[in-house]
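Reading a protein record of the kind used here takes little practice once its layout is understood. The fold follows as a row of integers, each naming the local backbone shape at the matching residue. With these conventions in mind, the following record can be read line by line:

_____
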Amino acid sequence: MFFPWSNSKGALIGGISSLIIMGCLVFGAQQAIASGNIQIAGKIMSTEGCLLASTLDSYLVENETFSVITPLPEENHSSTTQEDLFFMFKISYRYYTLIGFLITLFVGLAASFITGLSKSQDVDPILLTPPIRYLVFPSYKLSERQLERNSMKELNADDLLPLKADATV
């Protein structure tokens, strides 16, 4: 955990609100692409007119050196959109994870503040990330042996046995 004062209600509200908002964003953008409101230009798939390919061919055939290559004229490869399209639908899909994380974080923290913060002393320090753990609990030091004991608790054989026949339930 990064925030010891957040609570389960805030986490649930933040996660559900992020899921709903990101669902609207993703499906709205896909609908805009399917309806033709957003048109993504395709990539060039041929080498026709490429000066490098013709220079390379002449080098290999005639054993000449490479000449100075002039760049091809720039073409417009950007996406075209309508002006009245919602601006969030124009965002790249690569930002979806970041946007979803930020929505979850801020809505979850706000919901935690509204529903009542949990006390940082009530939180088990092992659940916090190490930098936050040492900020909230500066005197807390966790040794390697304590880590092993916390992660590998021994089970008693009696815990694994079924109930005895004479035991009353």
In short: The first helix runs from residue 8 to 34. Residues 76-81 have pLDDT under 50 and may be disordered. The helical segments are 8-34, 51-62, 96-115, 130-136, 144-151, 157-160. Residues 126 and 150 are 9 Å apart (CA to CA).
